[in-house]
Amino acid sequence: MTDYLTTRELAELLRIGERKVYDLAASGDVPCVRALGKLLFPRAEITAWLNASRSGPQVAEPPLPPILAGSHDPLLDWALRESGSGLASFYDGSFDGLERLAARSALAAGLHIREGEGWNREALRAALGEAPVVLIEIARRQRGLLLAPGLTGIEGFADLRGRTLVLRQQNAASQHEFAARLAAHGLGPEDVTALPARARTEEELAIALHDGKAEIGFGLGALAGLYGLGFVPLGVERFDLAVWRRAWFDPPMQKLMRFLASPACAARAAELPGYDLSGLGTVHHNGASG
Fold this sequence. Notes:
- By secondary structure, this protein is of the alpha/beta class.
- The protein folds into 2 domains: about 50 residues; about 220 residues, D-Maltodextrin-Binding Protein, domain 2.
- Helices cover about 35% and strands about 25% of the residues.
- The chain contains 11 helices and 15 strands.
- Strands 4, 5, 6, 9, 10, 11, 12, 13, 14 and 15 form a 10-stranded mixed beta sheet that branches. A 3-stranded antiparallel beta sheet has the order 1-3-2. The protein has a two-stranded antiparallel ribbon with strand order 7-8.
- A hairpin with a 2-residue loop joins strand 7 and strand 8.
- Helix 3 packs across helix 6 and helix 4 packs across helix 10.
- It is globular and about 65 Å long.
- The two termini are about 25 Å apart.
């Protein structure tokens, strides 16, 4: 999903002809930018424009399912079980989480999508515009190369050529970042050997390395000690929860957030090196529309 719609894509969205889209742009009736002779339409602004054009009675929305989707995080997953919040989980990557959040098939989604110097906000706005969704920081986490037990001689992406890797699914933000880093080092998929099966969660990736199925994976440092793996830290990322605002104040989410702020959770985070909970609860985005 890109941040901008083309003329054709906007025409398909509005079910009008492309000529009409050009007329709307020329008259200033639709948000657009002109770059290199092309018209582009900011996805987030188009969503907000459509929301602002809404009329008719307000219809009560159906209840949101008690499901937390998006990216898997070991600490959050543990907190879900220990807190007794009653929330279920469906982890299939940050981008899948955004889709489920937009479709209202989940009330929250875990995200760690790198955006230049920031995290998650633009991807959230691209998917939901200014919908009433709040983006709450959970933790900062160390990410880098997890190494199979006993593997040495790996210091970074430049050392991956010819190695056997376990990858994540395409909906995972870590897989997007992995591919970008690989390309930045002049390497492509043909330069490494990838396992046929993709790891659906951070722990599946660590387990595959622990079991000797692959040599290297792009994962969380927090899991290195648990599974006896080596770790090459390459940076710190921010892990957030995007939550529908009407679900934020309900007992399940409040119970989960109270537990995340508890001494028990802090103690668990200390057992998983690489977590920083100092920003827990910080609001990084609060959708404007109600």
